[in-house]
Amino acid sequence: MKKVAVDAMGGDFAPLEIVLGGIQAVRDYKIPVVLVGDSEQIRKILADNGEEANSLIEVIHASQVIEMGEHPGMAFRKKKDASISVAARLVKQGKCDAVVAPGSTGAAVTAGLLGIGRIKGIERPAIVTPIPNEKGGHTFLIDAGASANPKPENLLQNALLGYNYAKYVRHIKEPRVGLLNIGSESTKGSALMTETYELLSKQTWFPFAGNAEGRDIPTGEFDVVVSDGFTGNVVLKFGEGLGKLFITLLKDSIYRGGVLAKLGGLLLKPALKKYMMKKFDYAEEGGAPLLGIDGTLIISHGSSRAKAIRNAIRLANQVAEEEIPTLVKNTLNVAIESE
């Protein structure tokens, strides 16, 4: 098992829910965890839960926190002892294998970029996010918000990162990679998209399946969909809002449908909760990996509770075990040597 550092002070419910999530990960998966933050608060929660002497749980004190409203870059440089900064340094120094970062996405991306560092040959990191699809699996959207103004070369690199993640972490035998665009034709879209399409068509790292339209994301036609961070984040947030709208309309229809509709809804509720709602619950995944850095960092939702943190730690261990940075480095080295 890999050792995972957790920013225990990040998120809306820190440190209680974060520490509880760490405890659950240790109990359920036997993953070694390093809780970084206010050691007095963290140790009290551990003691209250009978885990103060657990050899798989380590506490490292950090005296500062990067708040949600702070400018990520400025705060990271100013607050050297912030919990996310200390956690990132543990990976950089080889003392931990991965970081779980709930709270500010900007702070997490900055910690990955400046604290851990980029893979040589990768200009900008990217967030890869799973979206449930009709085939029962996930479509992996990359980038979901790390870089809003990328160049075509950045999107090409994102495609490589997403392909490696889908193949080696998610064990999709031959991932189909598509470029998010407004049409399937190679000439459609902005200059950024047409130039990226040309680069993707010429590269030999993986098979390129062409343009993907927005409606293709939930069908499962593509395993990896490449986008700039601005568009990707809009797609992600729209999907979240649409899911909430669907639930609201479903409840309203049952309420308005009379006694039979209510009885039907009551009968359907267990199946919907088990087979549908579980797929849309972000806590099941726990977080989204930041790819392109020379280590493993999982960004968790700011409102994450213990279940989400537990699963984020599990995901961090899984990603770290596959050593994605090494795979990407090897691919880029081969490309450089062949030039």
Describe it.
This protein is of the alpha/beta class and 339 residues long. The protein has two domains: 1-122 and 284-323, Isopropylmalate Dehydrogenase (3-Layer(aba) Sandwich); 124-256, 3-Layer(aba) Sandwich (Isopropylmalate Dehydrogenase), CATH 3.40.718. It is built from twelve helices and eleven strands. An eleven-stranded mixed β-sheet has the order 3-2-1-4-11-10-5-6-9-7-8, with helices on both faces. α1 (16-29) crosses α2 (39-48) and α3 (72-78) packs across α5 (105-116). The protein is globular.
Q: How much helicity do the residues have?
A: 40-55%
**CATH class annotation of the largest domain:** Alpha Beta
Q: Biggest sheet, strands in spatial order?
A: 3-2-1-4-11-10-5-6-9-7-8
Q: What's the number of extended β-strand segments? A: 11
Radius of gyration: 21 Å
Identify the CATH architecture of the largest domain.
3-Layer(aba) Sandwich
**C-alpha termini separation:** 38 Å
CATH superfamily of the largest domain: Isopropylmalate Dehydrogenase
Number of domains: 2
Q: Per the principal axes of the C-alpha atoms, what is the gross shape? A: globular
What is the overall number of helices? 12
User: Major beta sheet, specifics?
Assistant: 11 strands, mixed
Tell me, rounded to a whole number, the average pLDDT. 93
Which fold name corresponds to the CATH topology of the largest domain? Isopropylmalate Dehydrogenase
> SSE order in H/E notation?
EHEHEHHEHEEHEHEEHHHEEHH
Structural class: alpha/beta
Low-confidence stretches: none
